[in-house]
Each structure stands twice: as C-alpha cells, then as structure tokens.
C-alpha cells in the first residue's frame, strides 16, 4: 500500500515485493510435476517397490517392456495435487534402449533415476548395473546436448545438481564422478540377502557403498517384508517424486539394511576394495570404479563367463596419440596409482594428492 510522501525508491520496492508475492502465490496454486525412471534386474522388484510407494494393493505382474503410472500428493489445504510420473523399464538389460522414451527435453529438468538391483543374485549385480547406467547416461547426455542448443543455462544447472550433494571440501571430490541426474540405488530382496554368509554380505555392502558414493547416489536396501525398509523407501521416493525433505539418517552396518543418502559417505569410511588374496597394485584398472569392478568380479564372476579377461586399453595405442589428452591421462593415471597404493594400506591412512588442482 502506498501513502503520500513515498519516494520513487519506496514505490519501486513495493512493486518488486508485490511481484514476488504474486509469484509465490502462483507457485502455491500451480501443479508441480516430476518424473522418476525405474530400471534394474529382471524380476528384481521394481513393480513391487512402485506399488508399495503408491499404497496400491495389487498383485505385481512382470513388466513386459516399458510401463507408466502416476501418483498425486497434496502440498497443503485447498491446493492442487502435485503429480509424479513413474516409468518402469522391464526386461532387465535386454530392453535398455527403451530408456530413451522417458528421457526427454521436456522432463529432464525434473527427472530422477532409480536403479533396482537384486541382492539375491550377486553374480548378475555388476553387469546389470554397468549396462543399465551406461545406456541411461548416454541417453541423458544426448538429451542434455539437445537441450543445450536452446538453453545452456538450464543444462549447467542440471549438471551442478548432483555435485551439490558433495561438499567442495570433501576429501573425495577429485575421485568421484556423479551421475548427470539424481540417482538412487535400491538393493532389493534384502530378506534373502540377509541369509548370505557374512563375508559375502560384507563384500556386496562395501561394493555398493562405493558405487553409490562414486556416482553421487543414495543407497538403500529394501525388503517387502520389512516395515522399516518400506518406511525409508517412502522417504527417499517422496523426495524424488514430490520434493519433500531428504533424510539425513545413515546406516552402514553390513548386518543391517544399508541406508546412505547421497553425499553422506566417504572412501575412508567405506574402506579398501575387498581383495584380501589379491595385490591391488597388480590389478590393471583405468580408474577407481574399474578397480572395484575387477575385484568384485573375481569374487562374483559373471554368470555368462566364469573367467575375467582384461581388455586391451586403446588409450595406450600409439596411433591415437594426442599430447594434451595424454598429459591429462597421465595425471589421472598417477591419481589412480595413488588411490591403489593407499587402498593397499590401511584405508584410514589414505591421503589424497590434490596438488595442481
């Protein structure tokens, strides 16, 4: 309200304040929409997780290809309900190319990814995760490149989102590679997994903690028979689907269901790759994630091939020499060697060489 004697500055401030109030009121009555894309092992429990979250008392059926459903949630009294779109990719890795359908220029700003891994099948865990994340990441990058031609500012904001989960002073800043969109990894069928031998459970827990931390993802274990894990599942999915507050609870005891929100873990707490009978320094690896993969697959070989074979690294082929790229590659190789040497010692004594960064 303006009164006699108001200066031009007072009038301008009043107008700005009114515009901000109008904008907030418009946002309160607008329907917000978000999308969540579920993918993972075939028959791994994706449909069960979605039905549990939506409180639908239905018998889950196998997902044949790509299925869609949605959920609504009211923000408050007399306000429109927000909408969450849920996409579920069936068929495990066999239909991974269908990931391009739910990943579009229109929804990528509000899209999250949920990777469901069947804990009862540890030999299939790494190859499924690797294939599905790789294909999904490629589709995301293509979509962001397309969006970048029209709106580069929005693309930069999207890329910075997952990095915000990790503080800049975090000791692992230089060793992680966050997924381009918010990512949650769910280890399903915990009720079966908890009956595994202690050492197997420890290896799988450590490995999944590392993978989640490396990709800037949240990690939780789930059982449809455990109300405690169902409650934590709701908290995480409500955050993705409706923007509710994130949980800051952390549970890393391998004898209990893991629950680690993004950015709340560290390499020093996770420990070294579980390779008691293997000299880490003798394993040829391109980066930390490759090192953990090779150690994990020595303990849990892929079902399709029981012997792991090293692939020739094209980066060392002289016909592809590029001085500037090679200098950067040498620097990264040195960082990896430091990582491996430190991992071979006590993990608590691990030091990160950040010189020149």
Give a verbal description of the structure.
The protein starts with 7 loop residues before the first helix and ends in a 13-residue tail after the last helix. It is of the alpha/beta class and 357 residues long. The longest helix has 27 residues, at 122-148. It has a seven-stranded mixed sheet, with helices on both faces. The model is unreliable at 23-29, 305-314 and 346-357 (pLDDT under 50). α3 runs antiparallel to α4 and α6 packs antiparallel against α9 (288-299). It has helices at 8-29, 46-53, 122-148, 152-163, 190-193, 198-214, 227-242, 267-270, 288-299, 323-344, and strands at residues 33-40, 66-74, 81-89, 111-118, 183-188, 218-221, 259-260. The protein contains ten helices and seven strands.
In short:
This protein is an alpha/beta fold.
- Residue ranges: pLDDT <50 for 5 or more in a row? 23-29, 305-314, 346-357
Q: Helix content range of the residues, please?
A: 40-55%
Radius of gyration: 23 Å
Largest sheet: 7 strands, mixed
Class inferred from helices and paired strands: alpha/beta
Distance from first to last alpha carbon: 53 Å
Helical run tally: 10
Beta-strand content = 5-15%
**Helix and strand string, N-terminal first?**
HEHEEEHHEHHEHEHHH
In total, the number of strands is 7
The side-by-side strand order for the widest beta sheet comes to 2-3-1-4-5-6-7
Shape: globular
Overall residue-averaged pLDDT value? 82
List the helices and strands and how they pair.
Elements: H1 8-29, E1 33-40, H2 46-53, E2 66-74, E3 81-89, E4 111-118, H3 122-148, H4 152-163, E5 183-188, H5 190-193, H6 198-214, E6 218-221, H7 227-242, E7 259-260, H8 267-270, H9 288-299, H10 323-344
Parallel strand pairs: 1-3, 1-4, 4-5, 5-6
Antiparallel strand pairs: 2-3, 6-7
Helix pairs in contact: 3-4, 6-9
């Amino acid at each position: 309200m303006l009164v006699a004697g108001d200066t031009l500055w007072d009038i301008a401030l009043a107008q700005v304040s009114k515009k901000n109030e109008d904008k907030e009121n418009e946002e309160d009555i607008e329907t917000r929409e978000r999308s969540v894309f579920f993918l993972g092992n075939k028959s791994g429990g994706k449909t069960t997780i979605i039905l549990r979250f939506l409180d639908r008392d239905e018998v889950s059926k196998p997902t044949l290809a790509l299925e869609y459903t949605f959920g609504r949630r009211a923000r408050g009294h007399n306000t429109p309900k927000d909408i969450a779109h849920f996409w579920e990719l069936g068929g495990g890795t066999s239909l991974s190319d269908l990931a391009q359908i739910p990943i579009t220029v229109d929804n990528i700003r509000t899209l999250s990814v949920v990777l469901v891994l069947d804990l009862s099948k540890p030999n299939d865990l790494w190859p499924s995760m690797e294939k599905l994340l790789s294909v999904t990441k490629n589709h995301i990058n293509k979509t962001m490149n397309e969006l970048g031609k029209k709106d580069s500012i929005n693309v930069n904001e999207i890329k910075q989102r997952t990095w915000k989960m990790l503080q800049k002073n975090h000791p692992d800043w230089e060793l992680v590679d966050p997924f381009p969109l918010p990512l949650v990894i769910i280890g399903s069928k915990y009720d079966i997994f908890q009956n595994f031998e202690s050492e197997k459970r420890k290896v799988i827990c450590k490995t999944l903690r590392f993978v989640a931390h490396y990709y800037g993802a949240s990690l939780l274990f789930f059982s449809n028979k455990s109300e405690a894990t169902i409650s934590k599942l709701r908290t995480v999915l409500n955050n993705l689907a409706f923007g509710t507050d994130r949980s800051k609870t952390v549970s890393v005891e391998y004898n209990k269901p893991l629950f680690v929100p993004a950015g709340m873990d560290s390499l020093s707490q996770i420990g070294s790759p579980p390779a008691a009978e293997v000299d880490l320094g003798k394993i040829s690896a391109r980066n930390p994630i490759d090192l953990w993969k090779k150690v994990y697959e020595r303990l849990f070989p892929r079902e399709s091939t029981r012997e792991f074979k090293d692939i020739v690294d094209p980066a060392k082929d002289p016909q592809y020499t590029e001085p500037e790229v090679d200098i950067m590659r040498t620097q990264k190789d040195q960082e990896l060697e430091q990582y491996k040497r430190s991992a071979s010692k006590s993990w608590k004594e691990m030091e990160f060489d950040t010189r020149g960064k």
